[in-house]
Amino acid sequence: ASPSSIASAAGCAISPRRRGIPARHAPPWQKMFIQGLLTAALALSVSHPAASRASASRKASLIGSATMAANDSAFSSLDEYLGHLASEAALPEGFRIGNCGFEFEPSEAATGTRVKMRLTLIVADKPSSSFAAVFTKNAFCGSPVTVGKRRMRESPTLQALLVNNKVSNVCAAGDGVADSEALCEALATALELPDGAASVLPSSTGVIGWKLPVPEMRAAMPEAVASLQAGSALPAAQGIMTTDRYPKLRAASVCGGRIVGIAKGAGDSARCESLP
């Protein structure tokens, strides 16, 4: 099946706990329960005729309504859990993922502080005119959100997502929008994308108030491109982690195609114990 949609959102929750025992007291790998809805759609490859005729908004609706029931699988170790994710992580046909890591010295931190960052690429083999995204409604949003909303309004196609962890590009010194656009341009050039930087959607997550290390990110781009592979989405789930203890990934078959979703974030699972 050829890729017919690229979408990004957020979702999925992982709560390492034992039934009836508050999460703060549970040994980390005695029980792990993966729960929640698949609301983070990384990529959708559809071959069903009815789905291929659907509008972009309908395809976004299909993604949003694809759910998975709570999974009470228990894992005895981190390796077992990662093995389970790997078995679920096969990419839809027509998509590749790559990432790389590097160190940089934030100008906002103490002199000599070295921080590790990961650059993650999600790339479709061909440009797609069917895409959707979900953004914060906060009026004071980060620069990648500003660029992303512009892509939704103005770009005829999307072909790649560029994600970095460690730095959110929010409330940073300088021009955060220009930094995001410069990195999109660098990736479009490295990949020789026919529609240029306008077909790249940026995303940043991490520390608020730090400026993106644009020179270091540019320098790392060739390594990330060289690592592109069509086998597994797990490297992307791991690459976008910040304070997360574990990667989050789900997959489902929909309309004759395949959806793979990744998510990030850490929450107070102890508070969730009291929810109905």
Automatic annotation (TrEMBL):
Q: Supply one GO molecular-function term.
A: L-glutamate N-acetyltransferase activity, acting on acetyl-L-ornithine as donor
Q: Which SUPFAM superfamilies match?
A: DmpA/ArgJ-like
Determine if Signal is one of this entry's keywords. Answer: no
Q: Which GO terms of type biological process are on file?
A: L-arginine biosynthetic process; ornithine biosynthetic process
Q: Which UniProt keywords apply?
A: Amino-acid biosynthesis, Arginine biosynthesis, Multifunctional enzyme
Disulfide bond: present as a keyword of the record?
Answer: no
InterPro entries hit by this protein: Arg_biosynth_ArgJ, ArgJ-like_dom_sf
Which PANTHER family is this protein grouped with?
ARGININE BIOSYNTHESIS BIFUNCTIONAL PROTEIN ARGJ (PTHR23100), ARGININE BIOSYNTHESIS BIFUNCTIONAL PROTEIN ARGJ, MITOCHONDRIAL (PTHR23100:SF0)
Q: Please report the name of this protein according to its UniProt entry.
A: Uncharacterized protein
Could you read off the lineage of the organism from its UniProt record? Eukaryota, Haptista, Haptophyta, Prymnesiophyceae, Isochrysidales
